[in-house]
Amino acid sequence: MSTEPADPGGDPPEGPVRWAPLVSALGGVRRVVDGVLAALCLVVFTALVIIVSWQVFTREVLNYSAPWTEEAARYTFVVLALVAAAYVFSERGHIAVEMLVEKFPARGQLVMGLVIEAIVIFFTAFVFVWGGWRIALNAWAQHLSTLPLTVGQVYLVMPVAGVLIIFYSVYHVVGILAGVESATPEFDENAEAI
Q: Is 161 a domain residue?
């Protein structure tokens, strides 16, 4: 057993030890964001069920369809889809075709995993954040016919979801580089649904 002190001027430690503070910090932020998104998805989904149920009730029982329910259901569904899409990125749960990547050696899988995350970041920044922001600004003055909102206000969910997706992709890049996450999404056939 050596009693020599570690060389303070030496190379930084490799692997998870070197990345530990960043992985830990991002993991903490991820847990908070996951909790907020899960709660938001639950609230928005519940609102969607209530809105659609009210629409059916008023149409079938009262013979009068509440005029606001169709528009509210449509935009609530849009918000739910975008928020849920961001939430699914947390677990890398979107559709992935891994057949080709799994044939690569470990180094090739690592490179492909990073390239895929870079493509996701670029696409999301360009389409969701930049494009979504421009669409929201263009539609800001367009009022919804039956709700006290503008189309632009509803479309703000697009750049917000984009920022969240980029955060999750950066989290996965750090996890891949630190060696605490596999380069390709792992699929557990025995996992229970949420």
A: yes
Closest CA to 97 of 185, 165, 164, 16: 185
Predicted local distance difference test score (pLDDT) of residue 52: 95
Bridge partners for 150 per DSSP: 143
Mean pLDDT of 20-40: 90
Would residue 26 count as lying in a domain? Answer: yes
pTM of the model: 0.82
In a domain, 10, yes or no: no
Helical segments of 61-193, H only: 67-90, 106-123, 132-138, 151-155, 157-178
Whole-number percent of the chain with pLDDT over 70:
87
Residue 151, pLDDT > 70, answer yes
- Residue with the two structure tokens 């649904």: 193
- What backbone phi and psi angles, to 5 degrees, belong to 97? -100, 105
Range of the domain at 63: 17-91+99-178
Q: How many domains does the chain have?
A: 1
